[in-house]
Amino acid sequence: MKITEVRVIVTSPSRNYVVVKILTDEPGLYGVGDATLNGRELSVATALQEHIAPLLIGRDPDRIEDIWQMLFRGTYWRGGPVLMTALAGIDTALWDIKGKRAGLPVYSLLGGKTREGALAYTHAGGRDCIEVEDDVRSKMADGFKVIRAQCAIPGNVGTYGAGGEAEAASARWASAEPGSTWGDGGPMPSVEQWEPGPYLRTIPALFAHLRNTVGNEIELFHDVHERLTPIQAARLAKELEPFHLFFLEDCIRPEHKESFRLLRQHTTTPLAMGELFHTRWECVPLITEQLIDYIRCDIGHIGGITEAQKIAHIAETFYVSTAWHGPGDIGPATHAANVHLDLSLANFGVQEMVKFPEVVHEVLPGAPTYQNGYLNVADTPGIGTDVNEELASKYPYERAYLPMSRRADGSVMDW
Ligand code: CS2
Ligand code: MG
User: Fold this and answer.
1) Ligand 1: distance of its center to the CA of 327 in Å?
2) Most buried residue among 33, 157, 215, 381 by CB atoms closer than 10 A?
3) Pocket of ligand 1 (CB under 6 A)
């Protein structure tokens, strides 16, 4: 069997997605993957079209590991979000083909089910702790057993922050419900303002309020979004200890992994990290030193199922669980890949999910299904997602950026 064509489809049903469709010389046999990198979609599409697709024509799609090694090491330039997202799109599409050939869902090829569903988490947000409480209650009524809570911060402006329009947009973005605008939109990035002082005072108060009002049974956690220094993160994690978070997510920037040693020795709050990692080797020190409890890289930005399965197996050895990144800015094929892995891994922890707007289901059918706190995928062969190419062409690419953030003095801050 041979690869005959690699089609790269950029489409924007409510937001931009990059889809990889690999066709074979077996009539009707193709695989679909997702190669969406938020705000950098065309870089990945160009890498795929101009540099990667020509290397794949004529190769045997069954040889996933060999193709992975060739694209990662064999082409000399390696790593980084653009190339690893492109590689993830190829990898997922190849697993889709392998599953379809075998007549088996991908979770079966990965070792078979270890559970009946993947414990899912959703997002709750609001302008103050009362609004967050209301949102948490409504998510609990939807059956969620794990909920991420974010709150606007007095004096800060924008996503995860406070202040009028930007704050409302941020709440919509964070909950990513059908019909929301999904991102702050517009051709140029919105600029937010963020200061650590008000943030560090507000978040412990938020969780004190939530525990007092919604109780201890619901699992709650919080995403710091890489904004704190190690000692600020240590203070926050320590002050949150009485509220028993499921985990504290992405506390510090991804560059200097050794900083986790400082953070870890100060707190028993479980730690999760990884959505900005792009290779296994970034994850490994945090796992082998047991500096985190959950590895939560993005399958779609770290080279796909092949790489994620290796990371998960290393993590299992060190009692680290998985919590793959699952935001609205990656496509249904990556969300489905997440769940195929979740169902097969012994050390699965929790899965982030979003509810896609109806138009995404029409253009990119087959996203995982949610029921009463758990996610599942169909037991059909392959990954289970597809692309309606005719419909996709009706939603052309629209330039969009992630928001940016600055301190009160105007200097650049991590968004
Ligand atoms: C967030 C992401 O889901 C999360 O945990 O951190 O939504 C992240 O901001 C986006 O994926 C960036 O594109
Ligand atoms: Mg996050």
Assistant:
1) 6
2) 33
3) 38, 223, 225, 275, 325, 327, 329, 352, 402
User: Could you tell me if 125 and 269 lie in one domain?
Assistant: yes
Tell me: the pLDDT tens digits for 259-314? 999 999 999 999 999 999 999 999 999 999 999 999 999 999 999 999 999 999 99
Domain that holds residue 32: 3-105
Both 91 and 29 in one domain: the answer is yes
Same domain, 91 and 186: no
The enclosing domain of 184 has a CATH number of: 3.20.20.120
Active-site annotation holder among 17, 107, 160, 370:
160
Q: What tens digit of pLDDT does each residue of 91-119 get?
A: 999 999 999 999 999 999 999 999 999 99
- In the prediction, which pLDDT does 168 show? 42
What is the phi-psi region of residue 174: left when phi exceeds 0, alpha when psi lies from -120 to 50, beta otherwise?
Answer: alpha
Residue 112 inside a domain? The answer is no
| DSSP string of 204-248, one letter each residue | HHHHHHHHHHH-SSSEEEEE-TT-B-HHHHHHHHHHTGGG--S-E
pLDDT for res 74: 97
225 part of the active site? yes
157 in the same domain as 94? no
Is there a domain that residue 407 lies in? no
Say if residue 205's pLDDT is above 90: yes
Are residues 100 and 26 part of one domain? yes
Q: 350 and 248, same structural domain?
A: yes
- Name which of 51, 50, 64, 61 is nearest 22 in CA terms: 61
Within a domain: 40: yes
Alpha carbon distance, N-terminus to C-terminus of the chain? 45
pLDDT at 375 over 60: yes
- 207 in the same domain as 84: no
Tens-digit pLDDT profile for residues 157-194:
875 633 344 444 443 333 333 333 334 444 578 889 99
* Closest C-alpha to ligand 1, atom 12: 38
Q: Is position 370 annotated as part of the catalytic site? A: no
The predicted-structure confidence for 42-77, as pLDDT tens digits, reads as follows 999 999 999 999 999 999 999 999 999 999 999 999
Whole-angstrom distance, CA of residue 86 vs CA of residue 302: 9
